[in-house]
Amino acid sequence: MFIDFEGxxxxxxxxxxxxxxxxxxxxxxxxxxxxxxxxxxxxTARRIRELTRDARLLEMGPRAEFFLNLARDAQxxxxxxxxxxxxGEVCITDRYLYSQLALTGGGRGLKEEQLLPSCELASQGLWxxxxxxxxxxxxxxxxxxxxxxxxxxxxxxxxxRKGLVGAGLAVRVREAFLAQARRDPAxxxxxxxxxxxxxxxxxxxxxxxxxxxxxxEQPVQRLVPAPTPPPPGVASVDDVEERFFHAVDGLEARExxxxxxxxxxxxxxxxxxxxxxxxxxxxxxxxxxxxxxxDDTAWTLRDVLSASVPVDVAEGLGFVTSPRSHxxxxxxxxxxxxxxxxxxxxxxxxxxxxxxxxxxxxGHLSAVLLGLAGVDGEESWVVxxxxxxxxxxxEVARSLGGLATERAxxxxxxxxxxxxLAVLKSTTGLETPVAVGLREQLEKGALKLVLRSLxxxxxxxxxxxxxxxxxxxxxALDSVDGMDSPRAWKLRASAARRWPATVVSSMKGLxxxxxxxxxxxxxxxxxxxxxxxxRNAYAxxxxxxxxxxxxxxxxxxxxxxxxxxxxxxx
Length: 570
What we know:
ATP binds at residues 7-14. Its EC number is 2.7.4.9. The protein has 570 residues and is mostly helical. Helices cover 61% and strands 5% of the residues. The protein has 31 helices and six strands.
């Protein structure tokens, strides 16, 4: 029997396909997995995959990508799948030709009927007996992928070619998979992986597959475990805290790592209470979840965790620049020099330069460069020159982040032939000639980075690019984070149904005025129960409340002075 797993990146298909292979082996079946442990079993197929993922090959068109992916699947078929089936084994694949139809047809926009003859040729008439589509909310899949990168130490890895297109690609690919499943319900099973423990999904999957192996047909196409019920009533700003933490507490029982990760950057007592509860089991994720927080509880947790997870504590400092942060970075340097040095972005203080000089002496030039973003003093240019001499082009490019000077643009021009994507990232928030030229050049191949580089830019050219991009991917909304202009609100309102979680997160830093509350309430009502939406909505509300609380003493003082001035005039 030939069983294929399909689904968008981050859906869990690789994990579930390997779990199924293990369970079937324990039940006595002979099983071959063509991508055991997540690695293609054909060396040739692995080489082809590296080529299709290479982010430097931005000019590769969708047809060339399609034929390369067909070659990969054809080689897997010839080397692994067909021999396994000839031996009478159950052969499991993690992606097959259906993925190429979904990616190139649904994702890239080519017509599926033009692609099918080539797929038939590549298949040699051999198609799976059973296809298991692991279906998941794309926003949740993206959170899981990001968490996986953190846990595997790959958080700074560059995007693949697919990743550079933006998150909208996964939405379109998912829609294409669902369309394929609807057209062939006898062959496809849809397994939803949104809000149930892995062991429950595994058991449902094993039961369905064994029934097929034993010739017992199951009429149900969808395997949908009962979800955890949300609190009753319609979600709104007024009860988003209760709903978010209800969801987090339910998630903690089945995906504790994700529950901890969802607290990232969220201030306030309820979030800190859960961090304390998770700290012993998940110290690294708790430390990273403190990103940007500067309250007493955050500092107590950092002090407690610094001995066991120094790198995570350093990463979780974010852009905090208080005296406490300087002291902690100095303590952490011996155990986590790279993380400490990379965390010095935008800091031009004597304390920051003392650490950089120490890092240079210790041979950490790459990390020093990565922590120079936003720093424009003469010392910083000496370091950049050292980086150029060592051919650390990507790191030098990233060190230019936030700098809008002619000198910075001249260096960007020199770096474009070496790493144009790193140069593009360094233009975030800028509208310099180099920034404008790169955006126009890379809009097609690296739309995600182009749109994110527009963050905070308020020009007609930027708005036109956002409005085009919002039809394709959510990063157009990422670029209006914290913006309070009429055009930003118009874009949010028009994209709220297509990219709800991102529209919500774009309101972070804005006060809870009537316009903010109205859009939050609308999205919460329409998307009730969706964890990424709840998470982002509560982050907006919690940060707005924290800002209001921090400003209260200042307001009181201003009001007092105004009253005193009025009395003096009287």
